[in-house]
Design a protein that fits this description.
Blueprint (H helix, E strand, L loop, with lengths): L1 H34 L15 H11 L38 H17 L4 E5 L16 H19 L4 H4 L3 E2 L8 E5 L3 E5 L6 H9 L3 E5 L11 H9 L1 E12 L5 E9 L4 E6 L5 E7 L5 H15 L5 H13 L2
Parallel strand pairs: 1-5, 1-6, 4-5
Antiparallel strand pairs: 2-3, 3-4, 6-7, 7-8, 8-9
Helix pairs in contact: 1-2, 3-4, 6-7
């Protein structure tokens, strides 16, 4: 009897969760037009879809309303320096973009700065807001679904880089369409390519050899011993001019520690830890992108000192909160 009762409650909980999910998705669609350009960029930490996480994502689903890469007619984006890290030192507070639009303008400004210093092979890495995720998979539609999310974001960047509306609305791909390696050519002799893989390294090399500045957005260059030499060489030639990455690491006793890695050319790579109150305090800067192992050691040591007086109750509370988001 107890087993049947547990199963009943499990099914009831699942049904309530499904009903809530449908309601929230419907609400997101109704609000999409109003909130299209106010979607928080702070959604970059990956969260598996639960009923509570989904509630935080409904606004982000509005991203789809941006439609084509051209966005809304007549929109004018003002330059943003929200992510600027010039002169920041340990202990300073790092400001990160508050909206997707602001983030892409920051990325465009970084690209422009790099081009002004003669950089011709550029890498941009930005977090994607999860749109249409399920409890089992954040991206059930795979790379094509990610392309549908990234395309309007790239459009915001291309506007600042002086692409025409016609150039932004182009639907061209490198390789197979299903690989979703989009390419846009225009602006000041630019070629913007999203989700490129090592399989198209030769085409990217040809674009660069033609004199174009190649801007790679969210590269899929997963370099390993079996990667082609062309892919390895092109990946090594890219300058990471803009990078915004969420960090979810651990301190002593598996204490969850969150932070962010930000690089806006020509500034250094800046690592900041999220502190009480929601601010992000700078704990280190690097000339080159730090490896994962370095970041793990950095955050562990910072937590050893910063959290040494944290009570057992508060530690367990933080661990429990982190577990609820899995």
């Amino acid at each position: 009897g107890t087993t049947r009762l547990c199963i009943f409650f499990q099914h009831a909980k699942a049904a309530r969760r499904l009903a809530m999910m449908r309601s929230l998705l419907l609400l997101a669609g109704m609000l999409s037009v109003a909130s299209a350009f106010q979607v928080p960029a702070q959604g970059f930490p990956r969260q598996v879809c639960s009923s509570s996480a989904l509630a935080r994502r409904t606004a982000r689903i509005a991203l789809r309303s941006l439609g084509s890469a051209g966005g809304s007619p007549g929109l004018r984006i003002r330059p943003s320096l929200a992510g600027a890290t010039m002169g920041l030192k340990e202990g300073d507070m790092l400001k990160t973009p508050e909206t997707l639009q602001e983030m892409m303008v920051d990325a465009a400004n970084a690209v422009s700065s790099a081009m002004g210093q003669g950089v011709k092979r550029i890498s941009v890495e930005v977090p994607l807001p999860i749109t249409g995720g399920t409890e089992l998979d954040d991206w059930p539609g795979g790379i094509k679904q990610k392309y549908g999310t990234l395309r309007p974001m790239v459009g915001e960047m291309m506007k600042v880089l002086n692409f025409t509306r016609e150039e932004m609305e182009a639907k061209n791909f490198l390789g197979y369409v299903d690989d979703a390696i989009g390419i846009w050519e225009g602006g000041d002799n630019l070629a913007v390519v999203c989700f490129p893989t090592t399989e198209v390294a030769r085409e990217l090399e040809q674009l660069a050899a033609s004199g174009k500045t190649v801007v790679v957005v969210n590269s899929q260059f997963f370099i390993d011993p079996f990667s082609s030499q062309e892919g390895k060489d092109f990946d090594a030639s890219l300058e990471k001019v803009y990078l915004l990455q969420s960090l979810n690491l651990k301190g002593p006793g598996l204490l969850p520690v969150k932070g962010v890695l930000l690089r806006t050319f020509p500034d250094p790579f800046t690592v900041a830890r999220k502190v009480d109150g929601g601010d992000r305090e700078v704990i280190a800067t690097y000339d080159d992108k730090p490896e994962r192992k370095i970041l793990e050691e950095l955050f562990f040591k910072d937590s050893e000192e910063r959290d040494k007086n944290l009570s057992l109750f508060d530690r367990l509370k933080k661990i429990q909160k982190e577990a609820s988001n899995i």
